[in-house]
Design goal:
The complex is a heterodimer.
Chain A: H1 2-12, H2 17-22, H3 27-56, H4 66-101, H5 109-128, H6 164-192, H7 205-237, H8 251-284, H9 291-304, H10 320-348, H11 357-380, H12 382-388, H13 392-422, H14 428-454, H15 471-501, H16 539-544, E1 545-547, E2 553-555, H17 560-565, H18 582-598, H19 603-620
Antiparallel strand pairs in A: 1-2
Chain B: H1 21-46, H2 57-60, H3 63-88, H4 92-122, H5 131-162, H6 171-197
Helix pairs in contact in B: 1-5, 1-6, 3-4, 3-6, 4-5, 5-6
Classes of the chains: A mainly alpha, B mainly alpha.
């Protein structure tokens, strides 16, 4: 029996070292790859932010000339959204979804590997643009410089003649393919791969939020794909989609971009909301307050996110009727969000709080996200938005939700699940340093930007004159940005030192509630020796505790939990998907094609052939999934 | 990549919804495609009658010709259904006939499109000429690309079947390409109605 198991696992791992990573189809390894790659991009995007803050620290500086400044803030935005927050969310989805629903892996392991490689190559492709603008050592940056939402007609060849925008539009197209493949995979996994008894309303909230996020992905990405194709045809084949001389309207771009862009905002925040919804109950030692309300709020957000896009366009002249309608829908979408915030607070209320680092970050998330959400409501009032539009108030608002929200949630998630996937606890002491430095740095950076915005400082300006009352606040924001950088260094040191000398975690260090904590840390490649049978929400908790006479949880006698979990066919060899290089090969075709579009059409067929070889090899491979 | 013994999990696991994973994937993909074509069609409709120079749709469209090629594409859906029915009852020879028939009808439709594109181009319509040219070629071009990919997959299955590598138990593969094929047909009906029949100025 053990021999069979060994052979089965041996079949899963014919490659070793780096080859086992290049050919892996294991959702846990892919999740780690996503996390590490996204973190490296996070450092790149962070350095870009620091350079921007240095340039703006004092008036009339010339660390960056206007062209460089445009390139740097564009790459900062594009990187942080497409290469950091999105893939970090996907990293958690990869790591957790199969474990939380009691599955062996995702539904399509090789498609999952394909998603990752496409994402990584797309991210590298986008950043290669830096080196294509001439001599980078003389400060000639070839990166796109039209802002992360690249409004047409600024992105048209006439106004952006270099290759920067080409890299941007093709890079985002490649990243979109990765997101689509990931979205399909996660939906099928969640709907189809649940363990016996794991009905939809017994799923952990993180899985629910992942499901909503995945649906947003598969419906939002095609819209941006079409917008990018239209831009591609305009730039490379002289089409007229955004050419006003031919009668086109630049509003088409704005509508399509924000039709994608607003669901995208929720793609970024929903996974973090899911993470927080897992951390709070565990560290309050209480069930999540109002589980169905949290779930339905998430679903409501998913639907409503399709009806608010024009609030990004209030000043573009849509007319009173459209502005009023989108203003109202924007106020409405704050309702389900507010419901969630109250549920989280009620989860903490009366809980037996254990003040560990993940809980610090989760509470930081609630506080910072609430401020971000409330500043968002001020934009929904159209006349107020007229004043705020294109000022630093907007910059402060979206960093408040995307950093104070999404990234705080993600850091909380890293502290929470790190022991599960490495077997080592992160240092709680360093974690709290990390948290306080980040919280203080964050508020020092972005609250001054609120003030700056209300004082009328426009966003996307390379420098500003003295004497407008902006000097002090800008310096404060720069000090804050470097404080955040220090907190990230503390985090990296914590990861480094904890991996080497960290406290062993054990299977369930937090006395948690969901299925991933019922198996060893790190989990075996096949996840569950025995597929669990699920009887309720927070099933693992209920296997450990029963309710005492006065409502206090009483531990189940040792051994009983295991006994109830037995499902019968323990010990059989577990069929693992075979590793494969074909996803990587297929993924390599895409950037080759993209380079072909920019430099020489002769490369396009080469890319197509690589892609086709990868796909046919994949389809005909004897491996079964 | 064989593993020892015949473990319990060697059979495809029963799914929670009872729907095969690959079939669910195909439905989700088609849902995503709706937004893709929806965006392209919206752009076309938004820009209808906004071209500032010709050639205009009314001068170019040959509705009888396009009706015939639309009919050809619709008939390919019938042969697709017959191919699926054939493999499901184990009649692999008929399946091959109908698969090939579907692929040929698809190719015939593509030839019609190629003819139409060249005719329009000769009359001065290009990606660059005006808004109509840009939106028309990109929309119908992406549809044609979808038909082409469908034809390639159909022919791949046909070749694999000639090699004897397609069994009755593989009927799901034919069902999946069928779903895709019918979807592409339905999109064409929408395009034919909104783009050709409601011609505009």
């Amino acid at each position: 029996m053990a021999e069979a198991m060994k052979q089965a696992r041996g079949a899963g791992e014919p490659y070793h070292g780096i080859w086992s990573w290049l050919s892996t189809v294991d959702h846990k390894k892919i999740g780690v790859l996503y996390g590490v790659a996204a973190f490296i991009f996070f450092l790149a995007g962070g350095v870009e932010a620091l350079v921007v803050r240095l340039q703006l620290a004092r008036p009339n500086q010339s660390l960056l000339n206007p062209d460089q400044y445009n390139a740097i803030f564009t790459m900062h935005g594009t990187t942080m959204i497409f290469l950091v927050v999105m893939p970090l969310g996907v990293a958690f989805m990869n790591l957790l979804i199969p474990l939380m629903i009691g599955a062996r892996d995702v539904a399509f392991p090789r498609l999952n590997a394909f998603s990752f490689w496409v994402f990584l190559l797309g991210g590298i492709f986008l950043n290669v643009s830096f080196f294509t603008g001439g001599n980078i050592f003389k400060g000639q940056l070839g990166a796109p410089d039209t802002g992360w939402y690249g409004y047409a007609p600024l992105t048209e060849s006439a106004y952006s003649p270099g290759t920067g925008v080409d890299f941007w539009m093709l890079g985002i197209q490649i990243l979109g393919i990765a997101s689509l493949a990931g979205g399909f995979n996660f939906i099928v996994t969640i709907l189809n791969m649940r363990a016996p008894g794991m009905s939809l309303f017994r799923m952990p909230v993180f899985v629910w939020m992942s499901l909503v996020t995945s649906f947003l992905l598969i419906f939002a990405m095609p819209v941006i794909a079409v917008a990018m194709f239209e831009l591609t045809f305009d730039r490379l084949f002289s089409a007229n989609f955004f050419n006003a001389n031919a009668g086109a309207t630049p509003l088409l771009w704005q509508h399509m971009f924000w039709m994608f862009g607003h669901p995208e905002v929720y793609i970024l925040i929903l996974p973090a909301m899911g993470i927080v919804s897992e951390i709070l109950p565990t560290f309050s030692r209480k069930p999540l307050f109002g589980y169905p309300f949290v779930v339905f709020s998430g679903i409501a957000i998913g639907f409503m996110s399709w009806g608010v896009w024009a609030h990004h366009m209030f000043t573009s002249g849509l007319g009173t009727a459209a502005n009023s309608a989108f203003g109202i829908s924007t106020i409405m979408i704050s309702v389900p969000t507010g419901v969630k915030i109250f549920n989280w607070l009620a989860t903490l209320w009366g809980g037996n709080l254990r003040m560990k680092t993940p809980l610090y970050f989760a509470i930081g998330f609630i506080a910072m996200f609430t401020i971000g959400g409330l500043t968002g409501v001020t934009h929904s009032a159209v006349p107020s938005d007229y004043q705020q539009n294109d000022t630093y108030y907007i910059v402060a608002h979206f960093h408040q939700v995307l950093f104070g929200g999404a990234l705080f949630g993600i850091f909380g998630g890293i502290y929470y699940w790190f022991p599960k996937f490495t077997g080592k606890l992160l240092s709680d002491h360093l974690g709290k340093w990390n948290f306080w430095l980040m919280l203080i740095g964050f508020n020092l950076t972005f609250q001054p930007m609120m003030v700056l915005g209300l004082l009328g400082m426009p966003r996307r300006i390379q420098t500003y004159p003295s004497g407008l009352g902006w000097d002090f606040w800008n310096m404060l924001a720069t000090v804050g940005a470097f404080t955040i950088a220090v907190s990230v260094l503390v985090f990296m040191y914590n990861v480094f030192i904890s991996l080497r000398r960290g406290e062993a975690a054990g299977d369930d260090p937090w006395d948690a509630r969901t299925l991933e904590w019922s198996i060893p840390s790190p989990p075996p490649e096949h996840n569950f020796d025995v597929i669990p049978v699920v009887h309720s929400v927070d099933d693992w908790w209920h296997k450990k505790y029963v309710e005492g006479p006065d409502g206090v949880p009483v531990p189940v006698p040792a051994g009983a939990a295991v006994a109830t979990a037995t499902h019968g066919d323990a010990g059989h060899a577990i069929h693992m998907p075979s590793p494969s290089y074909f996803p990587l090969i297929a993924a390599c075709g895409l950037p080759v094609m993209a380079f072909g579009f920019i430099y020489s059409f002769a490369l396009i067929p080469v890319g197509v052939i690589i892609l086709a070889v990868g796909l046919f090899g994949w389809a005909l491979e004897p491996a079964s999934e | 990549m064989e593993y020892a013994g015949t473990p319990a999990h060697a059979q495809p696991l029963e799914t929670s919804t009872g729907l095969d994973n690959r079939k669910l994937l195909m439905w989700l993909f088609l849902g995503s495609e709706c937004l893709f074509f929806g965006s392209l069609i919206s752009a076309y409709l938004l820009y209808r009658d906004r071209s500032v120079v010709g050639p205009y749709p009314r001068e170019l469209y040959d509705i009888p010709f396009t009706s015939v090629s639309s009919f050809v594409l619709l008939m390919s859906s019938v042969s697709m259904v017959l191919a699926l029915a054939a493999i499901q009852r184990g009649d692999l020879r008929r399946m091959r006939v109908w698969l090939l028939c579907t692929a040929l009808l698809g190719t015939l439709f593509l030839s019609g499109q190629a003819y139409e594109f060249t005719t329009f181009y000769d009359k001065g319509l290009s990606l660059h000429s005006n808004l109509f040219g840009s939106t028309f070629f990109v929309l119908t071009g992406f549809h044609g690309a979808h038909v082409s990919i469908g034809v390639i997959i159909l022919l791949s299955i046909w070749v694999r079947s000639l090699q004897g590598k397609v069994k009755q138990s593989d009927s799901l593969n034919v069902e999946l390409i069928g779903l895709y094929w019918h979807f592409v047909d339905v999109v064409w009906i929408v395009i034919f109605t909104l783009v050709y029949l409601l011609t505009g100025r």
